[in-house]
Amino acid sequence: MRWLVTLVTCCLPIPAMTHPHVFIDTGLEFVVDASGQLTHVRVTWAYDEFYSLLVLEDMKLDQDGDGILSKSEQDHLSGFDAQWDQGYNGDLVVWSESEVLPLSGPLEPKALMEDGRIVTSHLRSVEGGPVPATALSAKAFDETYYTAYDLTRPVTVSGSKTCQIDRVEPDVDGQLAQMQAFLLTLDANYDLEENDIPMVGENFATEIRISCPNT
């Protein structure tokens, strides 16, 4: 997926190229209780090497550059990406029977270093109480596509051994063709701040479908 972001970025008008891009390998754990209801979703983000380096330098961590954090440094890093603005959905949407589930903000944030990359995790509870996990779907995406989320880390269900997980990959070629056609209609003076541009992030996101039989 990273080649796609690079290609799209190169095609965008100059104003859009000033925004940094972040690549995040993502994992999801759907926590289901004994009655087959979804209670929480645990999210894992593994940041790309360059962004990880920027964060460490900004926070003055890993000063010796060995990629190993002390306990105090790890504690200081934990939660750096869990300070969310009001209304931010955590770049994760979960549906139950086509209805968007309200999820809490990040709980139990943790962070560590893994092969030169910052890896964080946080837990999100289903607000209003558990919901049946008979027909769930989820996508991790930034609608602006300035951050690219790839579901390359494990996607699992805990609490039940009977749930089925299916992946629906996006039509990358088709979506890219549509985006390129749109970009060709723009000129170098196109003002992105004054004009609406398509929010394409969801179109390039892998969909996860969870089905847990009633117990």
From TrEMBL:
Entry-linked InterPro entries: DUF1007 (IPR010412)
Domain of life of the native organism: Bacteria
Name under which the protein is recorded: ABC-type uncharacterized transport system, substrate-binding protein
Species assigned in the record: Ruegeria faecimaris
